[in-house]
Protein: Peroxidase
Amino acid sequence: MGSGASDNDNFIGHGQLSPSFYDKSCPTLQRTVRATVTKALRAERRMGASLLRLHFHDCFVQGCDGSILLDDVAGSSFVGEKTAFPNVNSVRGYEVIDQIKKDVELVCPGVVSCADIAALAARDGTSLLGGPSWAVPLGRQDSTTANMMEANSDLPAPSLNLDGLIAAFAKKQLSPRDLTALSGAHTIGFSQCQNFRGHIYNDTNIDPAFATLRQRTCPAAAPNGDTSLAPFDVQTPLVFDNAYYRNLVARRGLLHSDQELFNGASQDALVSQYAANRALFASDFATAMIKMGNLAPPTGAVTQIRRNCRVVNS
Structure:
């Protein structure tokens, strides 16, 4: 599925990531990324959540390698990940990444990977909405391949139960605690009715008043209202706080997979701790984001610094 090797390809995967990786080669990188993300959030605050999710959906497929950014190539055998079931008509923010890449190329041409840009954009989207900030380890390279099959198999579905969620994260060397902390990303952003219809109509571990509220804009019979949006966190949908966990304790999780974290099993105690302690959540979230951001491409993968995030260098 890849292309021929080009002069800046290499075979080392990530090597050691470091927050200071571009300090000499692109000293204005972080300022440039933050300025562009700030502008995007001024136009639409929800984009902070979208950029966070984009990085997550990148990292869970072949590691954090920018593979999600590659477009399908018409008339060739190259198929990207954008049309995979968890991504199609759902992942957003590609244009913001393009804009950041353009802005970064002006100051440091050919230096910064699209994968690193996605990681920085996720951090900035989080912190600009009131969430924690963290030093993002840098030095990722961009893939020359994408993997639609892995996107379909490895991105956790909203229908998963707790065991399935723990297994999906364990496959990426992430612990149950990481799973519960990273799920707190659902304190911002929106989801489509087709993702939570089963939970609001069929599950019993849901506050009846909350189910009724969500049913108003999400009809029982698919495909009616499939793409109708609802906030993950009713109170503060665009503030990165710990309200997500208070919602779970009140049985107001939007997705089946959300409520599974507080449903009489292993993560209940941690959910209660996060609900009571915003600082603990913020610190665990930052730690888990760094851990997820360290997911490397498979050994021996051919990587490069893409000139255009959507296409492998020719």
